[in-house]
Write a structure and sequence with these properties.
Layout (H helix, E strand, L loop, with lengths): L14 E6 L3 H16 L4 E7 L9 H6 L1 H20 L7 E7 L2 H8 L3 E7 L13 H9 L4 E4 L23 E4 L6 H15 L3 E7 L15 H19 L1 H6 L5 E7 L2 H9 L4 E5 L13 H9 L4 E4 L2 H4 L1
Parallel strand pairs: 1-2, 1-4, 2-3, 4-5, 6-7, 6-9, 7-8, 9-10
Antiparallel strand pairs: 5-10
Helix pairs in contact: 4-5, 9-10
Length: 318
Amino acid sequence: MNDRVPFASSGRDLGVLVGVDGSAHARCALHFAAVNALSSNTALTVVAVYRLPPMMYTGEPAILVTPEARAERDRAETILDDARKYLRDYPGKVTFSSAEGSPTGVLTELSGRAQTVVVGSHGRGGFIGQLLGSVAAALPARSQCPTVVVPKDYQPEAGQGPELFAHARDTGPVVAGIDLSERSRIVLLLAARQAELFAAPLQVLTAMPLLREWKYWYPELEEFEIITERRQSNLRASVEKEIAWLRQRHSRLEITADVDLGTPGDLLEAKTRAAQLTVVGTRGRGTMKSTLLGSVSRELLNRARGPVMVVPTETAAQ
C-alpha cells in the first residue's frame, strides 16, 4: 500500500506553477498560487506564454526581428512586470519566465516539473470559452500534476505587504469528492495534504443517485425509500473503511465523511461555495473510458464557485 504524497518529488523543481496573461482571472490565480506556495514552503514559478502567428515561422532570424514577434514577446514581459509588482512583498522564492507556444501546450510540458499548476477559469481574447476558458478546460485533462482552476468568485484576502500572501484563518473545509474507485486514494492523499496546509477540516463526500428518479421506469420498486436508506448506510460503511488508513495517517486532522443523495455535480458545486478547495480526480466510475476528463470533473469546473483541484492518475503523471 503506497501512502507517499504524489507529485512532491525533488525533481519537481518548479513547485507551484501559475500561468498569467494579464487578466483579472489570472490575478486571482496568481494570488492563490502565491498563498499555496508560501504555505507549503515551495517555490513559486510565474509563466507568461506568447504565441506567434504561423506566417512568422520563416527561420530564427526572422522571428527575432519581426516587429509583430517582438511586440508579442514584449507583451509577455509586460505581463510579467505586472506580476512582479503584485508580488513585490512576497517573502518566498519566486521566478518569472516567458515561453513561446500555446498556453495549454507550454503549461502541460512544464507541469512535469511542477507539484501543482494553477490557472484562472478564463483568460484574455480568443481564449474565452462559453463557460470555461479553453486553457482551464483543456489543461486538467493533460497536466502531469494536479491542476487548480480558480474561478472569478475567488476573492483574495485584504492585506498589505507580506500579509497579503499569508493564508487567512478560514473556517471553510477542504472537500474531497470520491466514488470509491481505485483513483480515490490519490485524491484523498492530496486533499489531506491541502487541509493540513490550510489548517482546515477535511470533508470526504460521496454522491449517491436518487432511486426515486427511476421509479417511473421500475414501478415495482415500491420500497425505494427503504432500499435507498439501506444502500446509503452500506455506502457510509464502505467510505469509512476506505478512509480508515487516512485517519491513521493524519491523526490530528479533523476528517468527516458523508454519503449524500443527489448528482455529483450538484452536490460538489454546492460544496465549492464554502470550501477553501474542492479536490476531485480526472476520472471516476463513468462509462466513457476514452474521454480525457470525466463528466463530473468537467461539470464541476464549469459551475464551481471556489477553487477546484483536479488530480491526475500517477500513471498519467509519468
